[in-house]
Design a protein that fits this description.
The protein is mainly α. The chain is about 70% helix and about 0% strand. It folds into four domains: about 45-185, no CATH class; about 195-420, no CATH class; about 455-480 and about 580-750, no CATH class; about 500-570. It is built from 33 helices and two strands.
């Protein structure tokens, strides 16, 4: 039997096409891990969790509690200062700001200098993100620190129920009371002795990735196709069923091979998830109790984090096997290629719909959680505590899931044996297919090569898919101006254009306002030094004027432009939007460049190799200039498409940035932007923006030509894809993970170049 199982595994895993498909899906899984965990204005980057984990490494639980509490207190104070300044900068908010400060005496003064210095940013690059991150860590630590109280509350509910059942006249023998009794029994053996709090982001993201579950289901479909459908297509069932031991042992070996495949594929993909988040978000102490992670604190399982991971992966593998055994039975029974897989997809779709749309608090909650999709979310089953109401009795989600998986597995195995033993459909019935579009020949070589690249090889579909990903990434990014930036934006938009007498008067009035504020602060300090007022009174008197001087650094930016215009000529121009657009300020465009590179490699890797693999060069070389013209046409088509594709992210960013930071004055001189004051006088802002977009388009063009060169060199699509990913994608992915030294090994410095 062991040799037969090994033979069944080799029939599928031994095929180059299946191994290639597995590598592709494995890479897609890593890509989705990266893409779905990109930071934005509401979500900190994974590097923040990695830095935080390094900071608390080696601390005791008391030290962790004090450390997080101090971060929370500092962030509350800094956020208070930012909120007060924002209110004072508005026309209607001054009164509310005074009220806030009177309700929190001394808080503004304590954290004002820290806010102005920006030293409070330890894990992110903005106040909003830092506040979100610190509050998340504080909430998790507080939740885990109260674990003893959580356990005590469960036992107290049981004691209260027992008191009611003794002294009250009403019947307490219902689901609610039984659930309280069961919960107390399930949690009685737990304690906080093995608790070691740590951020839960890495483990929860690695184990709860729905894309990984979807890819595992696709892998099971592919394996079953090679295990059953391919043999039926070749008519091999006539041979295997004709031998003495050709029925029971064969189908049993196929089922065991599929079970091993599910276990191995689940271990590999979820192992990759854990490695990715370990490197990106920081490692964990896997020997600590599962309840050390705040998101899994409600679990009643007395297991470590490592035990939870192993149990979850094993359960996912068994769920995939249960659903796959039903699909195997359908494939054996059906004479069609597509119908069993349509049935398999419908089976998963129904289970997903039950889990997704049935309300958790409804009477059908047992159906919501008691299905294969609910069982596939094993991290939720073992990481939470849930009892379901079955005829007034509490049944745990864990027990119900195991029961469902066992029932589906038994049905799948039984039907597979039955259909294989008695089935009469032993081969695939091919049906003739009509072409959707008639072929229309033409004489344009450029058009013909474009058709082969974009339609036949699905290059257009790939580029459109990546355009959607890039658009979602860029257009969904929100830029939030700080109170200081809002002041700078307001005054610069008023000054925009040529210098006039009205604008000189505005500058003089603003300068006088700041001089008055600084003079008043000096008077108060002098009075406090002379003993005229005490320190606390002096600080309170300075509050009004400090709220004015908080915006002085931004006024100095305006003043520098004013002095330059008076001396050398020029015009006022609000430049923040252009600084973001041209890459001088703001976040990196590394994520866009990764998506661009992946899209170009996937779209153009078969362009040259397809002619070698099909033997078409023998015909194309029949004329003296045939091969040269074909190569030239391919290069032109790919270069133009890649250039257009690479310029699109620039347009997306411009649309998003201009919503927060207006980009006026395209026809102004580039020297009106202080950062570009050394530009030649004839260069306008429009030319500067066009050069930046052109440079990014040229980067895409170079990428396309490199991929074409690899395709011509290797003469094989799979090898071109491998070398393209290795040479062009791996360095920038490593750079995204924090390995800055490899960034210069890619074209990213050219793509993100700033004059």
């Amino acid at each position: 039997m062991g040799r037969l199982i090994r033979f069944e595994l080799q029939k599928v895993w031994g095929k180059r096409g299946f191994r290639f498909a597995f590598c592709v899906l494995f890479s897609v899984n890593i890509f989705f891990l990266w893409y779905t965990n990109l930071g934005n204005d509401r979500t900190p980057e994974l590097a923040s969790y990695r830095m935080f984990s390094a900071d608390i490494s080696g601390m005791t639980e008391k030290e962790k509690e004090a450390f997080v509490a101090d971060l929370k207190q500092t962030m509350d104070g800094v956020s208070f200062v930012s909120r007060i300044l924002a209110m004072q900068n508005s026309d209607m908010g001054a009164g509310f700001a005074e009220q806030e400060r009177s309700e929190n005496p001394g808080l503004f003064e304590t954290y004002y200098d820290l806010y102005m210095s920006g030293d409070y940013l330890r894990y992110t690059d903005s106040l909003e993100l830092e506040s979100i991150f610190i509050r998340e860590m504080y909430g998790e630590e507080s939740k885990v620190a109260g674990y003893d109280g959580y356990l005590a509350s469960i036992q107290e509910q049981k004691e209260s129920l027992n008191g009611i059942s003794i002294f009250a006249s009403q019947d307490t023998d219902d689901f609610a009371s039984r659930n309280i009794q069961k919960s107390a029994d399930d949690f009685r053996s737990l304690s906080s002795r093995g608790i070691k709090w740590q951020p839960s982001k890495g483990v929860s993201s690695a184990m709860g990735n729905v894309w990984t579950d979807l890819l595992l289901a696709l892998l099971s479909f592919l394996f079953i196709g090679g295990l059953i459908t391919e043999e039926k297509r070749k008519g091999l069932f006539y041979i295997t069923r004709g031998t003495r031991y050709g029925r029971g042992p064969v189908i049993l070996s196929k089922l065991f091979a599929f079970l091993l495949h599910c276990a191995v594929s689940a271990s590999l993909l979820y192992g990759a998830n854990l490695l990715y988040f370990g490197f990106a978000a920081g490692w964990w102490d896997v020997t600590a109790d599962l309840q050390s992670l705040a998101v899994y604190m409600e679990s009643c399982l007395p297991v470590s984090i490592l035990g939870f991971i192993g149990l979850s992966v094993a359960t996912k593998a068994l769920v995939l096997f249960a659903a796959g055994s039903v699909l195997i039975a359908l494939c054996i029974r059906s004479g069609s290629v597509t119908l069993p897989y349509l049935g398999g997809m419908a089976f998963w779709a129904v289970n997903w719909a039950l889990y997704r749309f049935i309300p958790a608090a409804s009477k059908m909650s047992a159906v919501k959680y008691g299905n294969l999709f609910g069982a596939l979310r094993a991290e939720n089953i073992y990481g939470t505590y849930l009892n379901l109401d079955l005829w007034g009795y509490p049944v745990s989600w864990i027990a119900l899931s195991w029961l469902i998986v066992a029932a589906v597995t038994a049905a799948g195995i039984g039907l597979s044996f039955l259909f294989f033993e008695t089935g009469e459909s032993l081969e695939i019935r091919d049906r003739a297919r009509r072409a959707l579009f008639r072929f229309r020949p033409h004489a344009s070589l450029l058009r013909h090569e474009g058709y082969k690249i974009f339609i036949t090889n699905h290059g257009l579909l790939i580029l459109l898919a990546f355009c959607g990903l890039i658009g979602y990434n860029d257009l969904g990014r929100a830029y939030t101006p700080t109170p200081q930036e809002r002041y700078y934006q307001t005054i610069m938009l008023e000054l925009e254009g040529e210098l006039t007498e009205e604008k000189e008067a505005l500058m003089a009035a603003e300068a006088a306002r700041f001089r008055e504020a600084f003079a008043e602060i000096e008077k108060i300090d002098a009075s406090a030094a002379a003993g005229g007022v005490d320190r606390e009174t002096g600080e309170a008197l300075k509050l009004k004027w400090q709220s004015v001087t908080a915006f002085y650094p931004e006024f100095q930016r305006v003043e520098r432009q004013y002095e330059r215009i008076r001396a050398d000529g020029g015009r006022f121009l609000y430049d923040t939007g252009y600084l973001y657009l041209l890459g001088v300020s703001g976040g990196s465009v590394l994520s866009d460049f990764i998506l661009l590179t992946l899209g170009i490699v996937l779209a153009f890797c078969p362009v040259m190799s397809m002619e070698y693999q099909s033997g078409a060069w023998a015909l194309l070389c029949a004329t003296a200039r045939g091969k040269r013209r074909v190569i030239h046409s391919k290069a032109v088509v790919c270069a133009l498409a890649a250039a257009l594709f690479s310029a699109l992210p620039f347009v997306f960013r411009w649309v998003c940035i201009s919503q927060a930071f207006p980009t006026h004055g395209l026809l102004f001189s580039a020297r009106d932007i202080p950062f570009y004051q050394d530009c030649p006088p004839l260069v306008s802002v429009a030319v500067l923006v066009g050069v930046k977009a052109l440079l990014q388009a040229v980067t895409g063009l170079i990428l396309a030509l490199v991929v074409l060169g690899l395709s011509a060199w290797r003469k094989n699509t799979v090898q071109t894809l491998f070398f393209g990913l290795l040479i062009l994608c791996v360095p920038i992915i490593l750079a995204a993970l924090g390995f800055e030294a490899v960034r210069d090994l890619s074209l990213y410095p050219l793509y993100a170049w700033v004059w």
